[in-house]
Design goal:
By secondary structure, the protein is mainly alpha-helical. The chain has helices spanning about 1-10, 15-20, 25-30, 75-85, 90-100, 105-110, 120-140, 140-150, 185-199; strands at about 40, 65, 70-75, 155. Helix 4 packs antiparallel against helix 7 (about 120-140).
Length: about 200
């Protein structure tokens, strides 16, 4: 009886390594160790119906939230690009990003950051998105509940066009649940999973 209870208690651990993954390499290692996690594939910021849905996982979904200093951001994309400008000491562009009319405009300004160094950005970008996602989902109980409801699943940005923040494949791809066959890094998916852990 005790052994049966113990097996039932341990069942969720079968995907523990996959759910802690912070990179495709770590997820592939979990897969090769025999884990078969479930996935949530998302892409796009346009609501497909009323209420909270997968669109809220997008960096571009318009959601105002604030940082610890009370500074407001119109979206998670605004936050990421503002942090990028601040990281490189470009205060002028940082201010313009805060006032950007859309996530797309914020992204375009992010490309204009002066003093940009790719190596430095590669070191900081994932942590910045984790922090922005934690602020965003922690700012609204409905968003927080939605993200926490995905516990037990690997989050995947199934963008066929994004090989950095997404997997470079669409949800309908036969390889969408085979991380070893992904064409992208899925940095946003892993960042959201880390934010979920922090919440």
């Amino acid at each position: 009886m005790l052994a049966a209870v113990d097996r039932r208690y341990r069942a969720p651990v079968e995907t523990e390594q996959a759910l802690r993954a912070r990179s495709v390499e770590e997820l592939v290692a979990a897969y090769e160790a025999g884990e078969r996690p479930r996935y949530v594939h998302f892409w796009g910021h346009t609501p497909k119906g009323p209420g909270v849905g997968m669109h809220v996982l997008s960096q571009w979904w318009p959601k105002v939230f604030a940082d610890a200093d009370g500074r407001s951001f119109a979206s998670a994309e605004h936050y990421m690009m503002w942090r990028k400008a601040v990281l490189f000491g470009d205060d002028r562009t940082a201010a313009r990003i805060l006032d950007a009319a859309s996530p797309g405009a914020a992204k375009a300004l992010g490309r204009e950051v002066s003093g940009f160094e790719d190596e430095v950005w590669l070191e900081h970008r994932w942590r910045i998105v984790v922090e922005g996602s934690t602020l965003k989902f922690g700012s609204d109980p409905a968003l927080r509940d939605y993200l926490l409801a995905t516990r037990g699943r690997v989050l995947v940005e199934a963008s066929p066009r994004d090989r950095i923040w997404g997997i470079g494949l669409g949800k309908s791809s036969p390889y969408a649940e085979e991380p070893a066959r992904w064409n992208g890094l899925n940095l946003l998916g892993f960042a959201l999973m880390e934010a979920r852990n922090r919440l």
